[in-house]
């Protein structure tokens, strides 16, 4: 039996065991049409510390809404930010004070009104509570009155709007760090009524919810991996199942395969400095004499066939990617290049002095072979497949890429001297600052190539310090390419961005999921307010 087949069998067995354990909820007894069963661990994985937004619930990489809690702002179907609890906001001329006005008709599920004091408490408590929230720039939050809260920042930060977008508001009167996650009180469309750890969580409709009430009155979240989710869908026990891309060609009677675009971009980071014997702050080697040459980076960006990667690795369920943020409003189309041009790539290399003088198929320049190592997470099949595919394509250009599957500790130790296949998925514009500003170099996995451009730094700083979102967007775009330089492939080609993947789901044909939010495929329940069951009969 092949290894993949073994994994499928094991996944099926796990699915049967877990579903059997939850038989009273999901089993042979029929469920009402307005009950929904979801196995989408890619998004709604079981939270280790419970359903507490101050400890990651709903906030991981800013990917999804917490459902149980409300947020100040939320996303529209087109991806833009719109009001939720907030009614409006303003930013002071120096960019240091954000004033947000909120609704006066909202109550927590215990009947206590939600006020600006709860908002201020949430954000003040969030400072330092969870790294994924990143409230390091927040000085404090203050309730001016019941419906107005002021946020005082240490430095101007246009991307602070994303901090206001994803943090669920918790009640000051009922929040205890040790216990809140197990019995959360919120003001979102649903409330947690049961949590069987390791198996499932059951949410029921919040009848006092201030917004548009969802059609589904009950949601059961099954904590299954994606192989087990597929098996659960095959058994007909779930309405929605999150899948790996390898299931793209599979079909299940009674289900539609739904592919939701996302901004989860896969790309290769290049060490930008030459090897001079320098060490990083942690003592790791810095520099690579091959990838530091812009001709190598540009040739790969021009020569790689990204469409072939989408078709061959993602089974057609994704899109090509050039800048890492092509799908976002702050992406710059002018920073892209035309790819799949092997001959053009070869010409670039020849003109830069990279020639195959000894006929071994690998170019060299001044005694240095066009050869470098590419690290990828050995547990991620998609990254492995992408790495193998670009390695094969690079051979046609005379570039040898040596592949190394490793764990993250090993990868982080080598990222300053070797290429790494990363995935970035944050909608937050601050991610651009962290990836490309020289100040962020040698800081965790931020700016892994140690890119240093005073021009790009200037654009990133202006974008971050702007008090106007439209103006900030223009500076984010210029950082990618201003007609002469930028981090994008048309400029300094700091990365070899490859693809963005779709998130795949099997969805019962009786479910109408409305219009999913733009490029947020990981958050399939983000527009739960639009969902309904077409067939009103009970489902077994």
Automatic annotation (TrEMBL):
GO molecular function: peptide transmembrane transporter activity
Domain of life: Archaea
UniProt GO BP: peptide transport
Signal peptide: none
Keywords: Signal, Transport
Domain Solute-binding protein family, chain residue ranges per copy: 81-445
GO cellular component: ATP-binding cassette (ABC) transporter complex; periplasmic space
Family, similarity comment: Belongs to the bacterial solute-binding protein 5 family.
UniProt xrefs under PANTHER family: OLIGOPEPTIDE-BINDING PROTEIN APPA, PERIPLASMIC BINDING COMPONENT OF ABC TRANSPORTER
Protein name: Nickel ABC transporter substrate-binding protein
């Amino acid at each position: 039996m092949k290894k993949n087949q073994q994994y499928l069998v094991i996944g099926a067995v796990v699915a049967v065991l877990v579903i059997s354990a939850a038989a009273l909820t999901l089993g042979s007894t029929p469920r009402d049409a307005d009950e929904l069963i979801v196995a989408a661990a890619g998004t709604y994985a079981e939270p280790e510390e419970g359903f507490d937004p101050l400890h990651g619930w709903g906030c991981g990489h800013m990917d999804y809404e917490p459902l149980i809690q409300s947020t100040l702002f939320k996303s529209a179907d087109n991806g833009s930010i719109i009001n939720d609890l907030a009614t409006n906001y303003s930013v002071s001329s120096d960019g240091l004070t954000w004033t947000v006005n909120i609704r006066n008709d909202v109550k927590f599920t215990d009947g206590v009104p939600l006020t600006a004091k709860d908002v201020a408490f949430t954000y003040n408590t969030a400072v330092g509570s969870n790294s994924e929230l990143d409230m390091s720039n927040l000085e404090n939050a203050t309730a001016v009155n019941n419906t107005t809260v002021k946020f005082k920042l240490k430095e101007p930060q246009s991307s602070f709007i994303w901090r206001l977008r994803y943090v669920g508001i918790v009640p000051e009167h009922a929040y205890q760090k040790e216990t809140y996650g197990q019995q959360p009180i919120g003001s979102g469309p649903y409330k947690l009524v049961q949590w069987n750890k390791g198996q499932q969580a059951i949410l029921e409709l919040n009848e006092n919810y201030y917004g548009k009430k969802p059609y589904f009155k009950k949601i059961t979240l099954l904590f299954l991996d994606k192989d087990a989710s597929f098996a659960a869908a095959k058994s007909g026990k779930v309405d929605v199942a999150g899948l790996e891309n390898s299931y793209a060609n599979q079909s299940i009677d009674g289900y539609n395969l739904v592919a939701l675009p996302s901004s989860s971009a896969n790309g290769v980071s290049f060490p930008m400095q030459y090897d001079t014997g320098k060490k990083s702050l942690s003592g790791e080697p810095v520099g690579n004499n091959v990838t530091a040459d812009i001709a190598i980076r540009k040739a790969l960006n021009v020569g790689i066939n990204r469409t072939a990667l989408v078709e061959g690795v993602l089974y057609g369920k994704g899109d090509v990617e050039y800048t890492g943020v092509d799908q976002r409003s702050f992406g710059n189309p002018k920073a892209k290049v035309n790819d799949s041009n092997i001959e053009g790539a070869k010409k670039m290399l020849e003109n830069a002095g990279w020639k195959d003088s000894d006929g071994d198929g690998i170019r060299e320049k001044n005694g240095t072979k066009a050869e470098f190592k590419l690290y990828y997470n050995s547990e991620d099949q998609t990254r492995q497949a992408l790495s193998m595919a670009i390695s094969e394509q690079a051979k046609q250009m005379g570039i040898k890429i040596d592949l190394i599957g490793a764990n993250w500790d090993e990868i982080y130790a080598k990222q300053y001297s070797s290429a790494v296949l990363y995935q970035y998925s944050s909608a937050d514009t601050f991610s651009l600052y962290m990836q490309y500003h020289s100040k962020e170099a040698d800081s965790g996995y931020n700016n892994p190539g140690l890119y240093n451009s005073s021009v790009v730094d200037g654009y990133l700083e202006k974008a971050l310090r702007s008090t106007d979102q439209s103006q900030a967007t223009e500076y984010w775009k210029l950082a990618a390419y201003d007609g002469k330089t930028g981090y994008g492939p048309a400029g300094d080609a700091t990365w070899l961005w490859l693809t963005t993947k779709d998130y795949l789901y099997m969805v019962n044909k009786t479910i109408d999921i409305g219009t999913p939010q733009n490029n947020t495929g990981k958050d399939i329940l983000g527009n739960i307010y639009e969902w309904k069951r077409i067939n009103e009969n009970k489902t077994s």
